[in-house]
Write a structure and sequence with these properties.
The protein is an alpha+beta fold and about 220 residues long. Helix content is about 30%, strand content about 20%. It is built from 6 helices and 7 strands. It has a 4-stranded mixed sheet, with helices on one face. Strands 3-2-7 form a 3-stranded antiparallel sheet, with no helix packed on it. Helix 1 crosses helix 4 and helix 2 (about 20-30) packs across helix 4. The longest helix has 14 residues, at about 40-50. It is rod-shaped and about 85 Å long. It starts with a helix and ends with a helix.
Length: about 220
C-alpha cells in the first residue's frame, strides 16, 4: 500500500487512495479515457477520488474501492455479475476492456559501436548487415563491436572521432571511428568484401556511417 492508503485505512484520515485498482474502477465507472499515467490523468483521478470520499468513512471507503477493483473490476473483468452495471459508463457503452487508458512508455537503451575504415591501395572493406538488428540490409565498414577479433586493427589505426552520438527510436548509439591506412589487406571475416573507395556511393549505408565518411 502507498503511504496515503496506510494512513487513511489505519488512522481513518480523509485522504482518497488512488492505486491501480482505484484507477480502473473510476475510469470504467465514469467512462474516463484520460491516460492514467499522464500528468493530466493523475490530477483528474486524484481530484475525482477525493471528491467521492466520505470524510467520516474514509477508511472503509478506501478499503472498499481497492477491494472492489481487486476482486470484481479486475483487468479481465466479467461484468455480467457486477452490481454497478446500471451506473457504469463503460458497461453501458461496451468499452470495459478499453479502460483505463495508459500511455505506452518506450524504453530507450544505449549501445556502443566501434568502426574502422580500412584504406588499402584505393580499396576498402565493407559488409552487409544481416536481419535481426538495426540497419538491416545496409552496409558498414569493419565493425569491431560485431567482430571482437578485429580489435587488433585498433593498434594500427588512428582515432578520427570518439563518442559520436546517434539517436534512433528506441536506442542511443555512441560510436568511435578509426582510420587504418595499410599496404596489406588484413584478414577479415568471410562476409566482408573489398570495393574501390569511390564505389562506396553505390552502396546503401546508415546515416551514422555517412557521418564517419564525412570525417575522413
Amino acid at each position: 500500500y502507498t503511504a496515503a492508503a496506510v494512513g487513511s485505512i489505519a488512522f481513518d484520515l480523509p485522504v482518497a487512495v488512488v492505486d491501480g485498482n482505484v484507477y480502473r474502477v473510476l475510469a470504467r465507472h465514469f467512462g474516463i479515457s484520460t491516460p492514467i499515467n499522464s500528468t493530466e490523468g493523475k490530477k483528474e483521478f486524484a481530484a475525482l477520488a477525493q471528491a467521492l470520499l466520505p470524510p467520516d468513512k474514509a477508511s472503509a471507503y478506501n478499503q472498499g474501492m481497492m477491494d472492489f477493483g481487486a476482486m470484481q473490476c479486475t483487468p479481465a473483468a466479467d461484468s455480467a455479475g457486477c452490481p454497478l452495471q446500471e451506473s457504469c459508463v463503460a458497461y453501458r457503452e461496451n468499452c470495459v476492456g478499453e479502460l483505463p487508458v495508459k500511455l505506452r512508455t518506450v524504453k530507450v537503451s544505449e549501445r556502443r559501436l566501434v568502426y574502422v575504415y580500412i584504406r588499402c591501395a584505393g580499396f576498402t572493406a565493407i559488409r552487409r548487415r544481416t536481419a535481426g538488428d538495426i540497419w538491416q540490409g545496409l552496409w558498414e565498414p569493419a565493425n569491431v563491436s560485431a567482430f571482437p577479433e578485429l580489435e587488433l586493427l585498433l593498434g594500427k589505426a588512428r582515432l578520427v572521432r570518439k563518442d559520436v552520438k546517434h539517436v534512433l527510436t528506441h536506442r542511443i548509439i555512441y560510436a568511435d571511428f578509426y582510420l587504418l591506412e595499410t599496404d596489406e589487406r588484413p584478414l577479415l571475416p568471410s562476409d566482408y568484401i573489398w570495393i574501390r573507395e569511390e564505389e562506396m556511393d553505390g552502396y546503401g549505408i546508415p546515416r551514422l556511417i555517412q557521418l564517419f565518411l564525412e570525417s575522413l
